[in-house]
Write a structure and sequence with these properties.
Order of helices and strands: HHHHEEEEHEEHEHEEEEEEE
Strand content: 15-25%
CATH class of one domain: Alpha Beta
Structural class: alpha/beta
Shape: elongated
Strand order of the largest sheet: 1-2-3-5-7
CATH architecture of one domain: 3-Layer(aba) Sandwich
Helix content: 40-55%
Distance between the termini: 71 Å
Amino acid sequence: MYRTSRSGSVLQGLALYALIAYGISSWLRISWLLAFAATILAVILLVLLGYLVVRVFSGARKFIQGFSRCPHGLRHPSISHCAACEKAEEEKRKAYERECAERQRLERLKKEAAALRDAEILRLSKAWQSASASYFAMDDRTFEDAISELFRKLGYSVKQTPYSNDGGKDAIASRDGKKYVIECKRYREAGVTSRRDLQILLAAMHDEKADGAVFISTGRFSANAIEYGRLNGIELYDHAHLPILVNRAYGPSAEMPPAKVMCTQCGGIVAIDVVPGGYKQSRCPAYHLVTSNIRLDDLSVVFSLETPACPKCNSSMRIVKGRMGTFWGCSRYPKCHSTMRIRKRGEDGRGHHHPKPSAS
């Protein structure tokens, strides 16, 4: 293909020369062959003239350089052998290498700081989720997710219902062959859950043919609601009793630990408190000012990572890291090619993302 294109270019050039020669022969009224030879000769002379011009300018530049001196007073061509110039060039090269090394170091620290942030968000989300006080600052959807995960920690198999048109229940929990319906309400501490809310939950329990029901509220229950729940076997957890349920699932509640933040200048680790809405600052051991890259709004519900069964062969699945991301793959691969998507944090079973918790 290369030879063909090259020969085609040569033929095109000759055709162009022939066309020019034909025009010259018609203009000067001479033979076509003489005009063609004159055209070729003119091109050769132009090439030689260009070569001579380049040589002349190159010689002139070298002649002028012969009178130039380096910053240390040496005349060309001794400039290339000036020890001071060579030392300056060496220092310049070393400075460039140091600059490249520093740029690579800062880039590495930036990546390590980002990895530490991801790990800290996961750790702090678990701590935030196990602190009973956090539940009162969550938004509605995050509160439902957190309660569902709380019951998973208690040993239940939990299936959440849609956020709208849920039929009076937010989740269905199962354990030891028994089924329970769960309803969650995010109220202020002074908010009151009435008997009517419990009647709706009881109707949902009968529709699901469940063995029991649980109503969780961040407010309080009216006296009629408490009596109605006692008579119908509905467990009630209000603002005062929700911490008991959280402690039963996660253990005694502790204060929110500080976040570990890496200084992107020296790599030092700084412990900075997590606050809602903004980012706090502190000094690293090298006294660089470090701004926290984690705030309370970045934390979310951490779902349990239960190993699913293969939908084709019922074997256990395993986590696989591929070019398109991380996913569940059958442990019998390559005999079985079944895969499943891993549910992310803050995402329900249908792949819908939930908003992050609002700042308290």
